């Protein structure tokens, strides 16, 4: 019998990947029987291809011989492009030396949590929220302190709720806006209030997951954690290319770190993956510096789908859905159907051929909800809602 480390048991997962695999198997079975394919509203990734000029840049980088290791922190030109993009979007000056490029959004959260988490420490994280936060906190041995996000507050977090959970043992606070799985957007005033409270606690770091910061609707605005100079030595700002440029499979992300932590995080990179593959980093420069029309077109499409799914979800018996302000998720309350979230997830998939994800995959405060990703065609969204409506009639 092998003896693995005890904390391996504490590692959670992201159910979206299991649902994706189940949906794929069921899809094959349905097609073999001549039934309509599964409509996947489970996985959170844009259904658009990566814009062509980005792909071409990566191909050219390979042809030009960029086959080797790069600096672990990321190619300087890429880090400079990130700093310029942050300046353009958030009107902030960022030293490219504080930018650390990693394979996707996830490594930043894992590294940040491992840096601060250990037995005796506490880390506050959004619930419902991206499941990797809790998983990594528990793996680190720290106490995971959920910050409940409420439907009645359109799933924005409230600074007072964060502050109320802070203790002497708090080492790290994680926030995410626009949010997965709810599409919730936290207003600037709440960010201001939280920033002011954190400035009084220089021993507490904040990880602000801003991976959906370009995906906001109806004129909503994003307030980056980078806009608070007082938090310069505490704030870790996570962002990346996956969602904004439809690049989930490329594995490219970054964070802006407090200066004092850069050396440690680069060491973690050297220990873990050495560097992001070189052609992807060149693609990342092309994405940031090239034309943004494709990004705008995707956003316009997501917004149109958002309106469709919101209206159709609210018309389903037993469903009610608050308006998501960002990202590409809707998070309806389904208590009125009489089904638990898991029952609804399973029946939607098996009987209606629609993949969605049960709320409890995202936290202990998410029973009674389902996550739908509307990164799918309007036609598929309409068809999925029709199928769910028909299933609910039979309950
Ligand atoms: N942060 C949030 C809130 C996410 O929803 C996701 C992906 O779904 C990530 C980070 C991870 O992104 P990546 O695929 O770039 O690792």
UniProtKB/TrEMBL annotation:
Its cofactor is pyridoxal 5'-phosphate. GO terms for molecular function: L-aspartate:2-oxoglutarate aminotransferase activity; pyridoxal phosphate binding. It is an enzyme of class 2 (transferase). One of its GO terms (biological process) is amino acid metabolic process. Its EC number is 2.6.1.1. It catalyses: L-aspartate + 2-oxoglutarate = oxaloacetate + L-glutamate. The keyword Transferase applies. Keywords: Aminotransferase, Pyridoxal phosphate, Transferase. CDD domains: AAT_like (cd00609). InterPro entries: Aminotransferase_I/II_large (IPR004839), AspAT/PAT-like (IPR050596), PyrdxlP-dep_Trfase (IPR015424), PyrdxlP-dep_Trfase_major (IPR015421), PyrdxlP-dep_Trfase_small (IPR015422). Residues 37-388 form the Aminotransferase class I/classII large domain. The keyword Transferase applies. Coiled coil: none annotated. Belongs to the class-I pyridoxal-phosphate-dependent aminotransferase family. This is aspartate transaminase. It comes from Marivibrio halodurans. The lineage of its organism: Bacteria, Pseudomonadati, Pseudomonadota, Alphaproteobacteria, Rhodospirillales.
């Amino acid at each position: 019998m092998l003896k693995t480390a005890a904390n391996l048991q504490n590692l959670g997962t992201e159910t979206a990947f299991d649902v994706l695999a189940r949906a794929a198997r069921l899809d094959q079975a349905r097609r073999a029987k001549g039934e309509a394919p599964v409509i996947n509203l489970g996985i959170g990734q844009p259904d658009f291809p990566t814009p062509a000029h980005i792909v071409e840049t990566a191909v050219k980088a390979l042809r030009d011989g960029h086959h080797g290791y790069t600096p672990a922190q990321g190619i300087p030109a890429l880090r400079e492009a990130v700093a310029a993009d942050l300046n353009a979007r958030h009107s902030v000056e960022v030293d490219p030396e504080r930018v650390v490029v990693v394979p996707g959004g996830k490594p930043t959260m894992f590294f940040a949590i491992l840096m601060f988490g250990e037995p005796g420490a506490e880390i506050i994280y959004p619930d419902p929220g991206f499941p990797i936060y809790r998983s990594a906190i528990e793996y680190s041995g720290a106490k995971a302190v959920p910050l409940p996000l409420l439907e009645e507050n359109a799933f924005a977090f409230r600074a007072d709720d964060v502050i109320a959970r802070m203790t002497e043992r708090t080492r790290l606070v994680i926030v995410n806006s626009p949010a997965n799985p709810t599409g919730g957007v936290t207003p600037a005033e709440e960010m201001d209030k939280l920033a002011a409270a954190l400035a009084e606690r220089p021993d507490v770091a904040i990880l602000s997951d801003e991976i959906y910061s370009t995906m906001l609707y109806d004129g909503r605005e994003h307030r980056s954690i980078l806009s608070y100079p007082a938090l310069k030595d505490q704030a870790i700002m996570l962002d990346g290319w996956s969602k904004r440029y439809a690049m989930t499979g490329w594995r490219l992300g970054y964070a802006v770190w407090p200066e004092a932590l850069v050396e440690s995080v680069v060491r973690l990179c050297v220990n873990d993956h050495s560097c992001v593959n070189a052609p992807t980093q060149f693609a990342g420069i092309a994405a940031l510096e090239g034309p943004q029309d494709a990004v705008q077109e995707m956003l316009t499409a997501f917004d149109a789908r958002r309106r469709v799914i919101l209206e159709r979800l609210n018309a389903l018996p037993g469903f009610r859905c608050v308006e998501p302000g960002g990202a590409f998720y809707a998070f309806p309350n389904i208590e009125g159907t009489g089904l638990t979230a898991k029952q609804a997830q399973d029946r939607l998939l098996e009987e209606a051929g629609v993949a969605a994800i049960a709320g409890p995959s995202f936290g202990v405060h998410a029973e009674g909800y389902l996550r739908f990703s509307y990164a799918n065609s309007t036609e598929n969204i309409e068809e999925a809602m029709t199928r769910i409506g028909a299933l609910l009639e039979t309950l």
